[in-house]
Amino acid sequence: MRAIITGGGTGGHIYPALAIAKGLQHRFPHAQILYVGTTQGLEADIVPKANFPFKAITVSGFERKFSPGNLKVAWQALQGYRQARAVIKKFKPQVVIGTGGYVCGPVVLAAARLGIPTLIHEQNALPGVTNRILSRVVDRVAVSFEDSMPYFPKKAAVTLTGLPVRPEILQAERDLSLASLGLRDDRITILVFGGSRGARRINQAMTEVIRRFGNRPEVQILHATGQAGYREFLEQLERQGINLDDYVNITIVPYLYNMHEALAVADMVVSRAGAATLAELTLLGLPSILIPYPYAAENHQEHNARALADRGAAVLIKDAELTGLTLVEQMEGMIQDKNRLKDMAQVSQKLGRAKALDDIVDCVEEILPRP
Ligand SMILES: CC(=O)N[C@H]1[C@@H](OP(=O)(O)OP(=O)(O)OC[C@H]2O[C@@H](n3ccc(=O)[nH]c3=O)[C@H](O)[C@@H]2O)O[C@H](CO)[C@@H](O)[C@@H]1O
């Protein structure tokens, strides 16, 4: 089987694309896969490192308002379309899969117009612009949240699959992870992080949390500040007269390379509302306090967070309303009420989709041309 996979710009589109590529290789051991992206996107760096052949075409994003720059972008889009068509004609894929980002536009459109089966995967509860447009021409749309379904045209074939997560997230064991992280078994463990790059606003609110929860015997906190915010956070604590050496139950790190272990020991999570994070939280049935990043495209993180909060799996705090006190109050509410925490965990687990990758590969198999 021969497949072209495309998706790019940020890790949020690239990692699901790579997961699908690996899923196809697993199902079809002789699969030949070509990844199409741009040279400017992160994919140009990440994809070759993952050992997939990579081909770049020229595309860039439109500005959302009219600007002369958009004429150049329109010209590039036409070029990109021609390049995509040429790549497709040469590689002769049986299927073309897009996971969002501008580069998907010309590649998936050219494939559809050449009569090649196409599938797109949407990660967020509010679908991105490219996927919304492409949904009119593709054979299948795979989505991560039920809430995104109404945004696609009625005649589109939309399937709820979920978002594939890293396999180690499901495999980590609680006891080994507690030992590896140096945490205790007899405390409620609260994991705090702000997406892959950290969140200054969450870090700011955390000083008050540390003041309130520091040395509380029933609680321990593991907080990843983000690489860029680590120094600043420590300075902030120092200015406020908080000495971490005084608190045995607070662990602060710049980044969690062992997120699978952190999630395995957590009883509740405080985080931004990126799609990958939410897929991980629901897969493990973790209750959470979500503070959506308000500048994500079209405020899509708030839609992601609502998909959990409206059903009772999470508490949503808007970034503009986040203070140390609001966070402390919500955390207290969850820690004090064990039944509520348990109910939230159950709802969260029901939203998790452990078979996401398998279900996406099933969708691909269904649209493949019959031999
Ligand atoms: C700012 C922004 O626009 N982000 C978008 C980007 O998310 P982006 O990929 O940045 O963020 P996500 O929350 O989806 O993923 C973060 C990932 O980093 C991991 N992690 C995080 C911190 C840490 O210390 N260690 C660690 O391993 C998390 O476990 C998770 O797997 O693409 C997603 C999918 O389109 C969107 O939903 C997000 O809104």
From TrEMBL:
Catalytic activity field: di-trans,octa-cis-undecaprenyl diphospho-N-acetyl-alpha-D-muramoyl-L-alanyl-D-glutamyl-meso-2,6-diaminopimeloyl-D-alanyl-D-alanine + UDP-N-acetyl-alpha-D-glucosamine = di-trans,octa-cis-undecaprenyl diphospho-[N-acetyl-alpha-D-glucosaminyl-(1->4)]-N-acetyl-alpha-D-muramoyl-L-alanyl-D-glutamyl-meso-2,6-diaminopimeloyl-D-alanyl-D-alanine + UDP + H(+)
Listed InterPro entries: GlcNAc_MurG, Glyco_trans_28_C, GlycoTrans_28_N
Lipid bilayer topology: Peripheral membrane protein
Compartments, record wording: Cell membrane
UniProt pathway: Cell wall biogenesis; peptidoglycan biosynthesis
GO molecular function term, any single one: undecaprenyldiphospho-muramoylpentapeptide beta-N-acetylglucosaminyltransferase activity
Group of enzyme by EC: transferase
Residues annotated to bind UDP-N-acetyl-alpha-D-glucosamine: T10, G11, G12, N124, R166, S196, Q301
EC number(s) given by UniProt: 2.4.1.227
Domain Glycosyltransferase family 28 N-terminal intervals: 4-142
GO biological process: carbohydrate metabolic process; cell division; cell wall organization; peptidoglycan biosynthetic process; regulation of cell shape
Limits of the Glycosyl transferase family 28 C-terminal domain: 189-358
This protein's UniProt keywords: Cell cycle, Cell division, Cell membrane, Cell shape, Cell wall biogenesis/degradation, Glycosyltransferase, Membrane, Peptidoglycan synthesis, Transferase
Highest taxon of the lineage: Bacteria
GO cellular component, one term: plasma membrane
Reported function: Cell wall formation. Catalyzes the transfer of a GlcNAc subunit on undecaprenyl-pyrophosphoryl-MurNAc-pentapeptide (lipid intermediate I) to form undecaprenyl-pyrophosphoryl-MurNAc-(pentapeptide)GlcNAc (lipid intermediate II).
Family: Belongs to the glycosyltransferase 28 family. MurG subfamily.
Record protein name field: UDP-N-acetylglucosamine--N-acetylmuramyl-(pentapeptide) pyrophosphoryl-undecaprenol N-acetylglucosamine transferase
